[in-house]
Recover the amino acids of this structure.
């Protein structure tokens, strides 16, 4: 209290965990086995959820998009099933509030989630960096061809579905280059680095 009054409500004191990884961690609760039933029963005020918005960054960011929400059927529906089950079990056993931060992106490599300093300590760093430099060199040409390649695949897929045959084309490989979720350290910078100042009990990675 000074010249103004700031009131903050609904604050819990417990422990916070980070749940990160790719598609296995990102897989939402509603798509899990018995998911709709689990979603409908997910009313746990002492369990809080935070989903980090997808973000690729060239340098470590200082903040992330997203906000804390109490665990309700609406908030947990598209939240990580693995993270939800983990946090729910923890909250039940410990009897304290539990918050879980979901920072994940399906189909991404571990190199995207590692800091540049950590990557340089990896024994295979020279090979990793060589692949990345080649991807950078190829990026503009591949990006120009990608829409046509994807359109051709989609057309062939539609024909295959209609005729109950197999699509002769291979799904175009993902675009790997600057600004993509495959950028070295890109997801660490955008989705992990800003969380480092937050006190956490631990991390689960899938």
């Amino acid at each position: 209290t000074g010249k103004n009054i700031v009131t903050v409500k609904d604050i819990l004191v417990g422990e916070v965990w980070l749940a990160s990884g790719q598609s296995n961690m990102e897989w939402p609760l509603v798509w899990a086995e018995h998911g709709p039933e689990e979603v409908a029963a997910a009313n746990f005020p002492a369990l809080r959820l935070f989903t980090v918005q997808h973000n690729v960054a060239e340098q470590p960011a200082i903040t992330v998009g997203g906000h804390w929400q109490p665990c309700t059927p609406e908030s947990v529906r598209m939240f990580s099933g693995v993270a939800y089950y983990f946090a729910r079990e923890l909250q039940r056993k410990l009897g304290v509030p539990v918050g879980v931060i979901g920072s994940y992106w399906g189909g991404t490599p571990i190199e995207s989630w590692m800091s540049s300093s950590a990557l340089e300590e990896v024994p295979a760093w020279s090979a990793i960096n060589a692949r990345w430099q080649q991807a950078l060199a190829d990026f503009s040409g591949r990006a120009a061809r990608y829409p046509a390649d994807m359109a051709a695949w989609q057309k062939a897929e539609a024909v295959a579905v209609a005729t109950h045959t197999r699509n002769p084309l291979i799904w175009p490989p993902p675009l790997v280059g600057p600004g993509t979720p495959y950028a070295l350290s890109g997801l660490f910078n955008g989705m992990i680095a800003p969380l480092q100042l937050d006190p956490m009990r631990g991390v689960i990675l899938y």
The chain has a mean pLDDT of 96. Residues 22 and 105 are 5 Å apart (CA to CA).
